[in-house]
Amino acid sequence: MYTSHQENNEFNMDNEQIATQGSDQFSEAISDLDSVLDDIEASLEENAEEYVNSFVQKGGQ
Fold first, then answer.
1. Mean pLDDT score, 17-39
2. Which intervals carry biased composition (Polar residues) (predicted)?
3. Exposed site from 2, 31, 34, 43, fewest CB < 10 Å?
4. What distance in Å separates the CA atoms of residue 57 and residue 39, rounded to the nearest whole number?
């Protein structure tokens, strides 16, 4: 099937826009994950012993 040069350019631009949008969403997700991990790290620095003890089984749990 023959497509015109203009159609190919439009197709390529659409693919570039999709790739850019996906890259932006990926970067945002990584940033959100980093924020969550920073919160966890800060919490553990403050009360690591309490955090670990919350996983210790007590009396047959």
1. 88
2. 1-28
3. 2
4. 25
In a 10 Å sphere around its CB, with 0-12 CB exposed, 13-18 middle and 19+ buried, how is residue 32 labelled? exposed
31: alpha, beta or left? (left if phi > 0; alpha if psi -120 to 50)? alpha
Query: Is the per-residue pLDDT at 20 higher than 60?
Result: yes
Predicted confidence band at 48 (pLDDT cuts at 50, 70, 90)? confident
Contact status, residue 16 vs residue 23, Cβ threshold 8 Å: no
**Could you please report the per-residue DSSP string of 1-61?**
----HHHHHHHHHHHHHHHHHHHHHHHHHHHHHHHHHHHHHHHHHHHHHHHHHTTS--S--
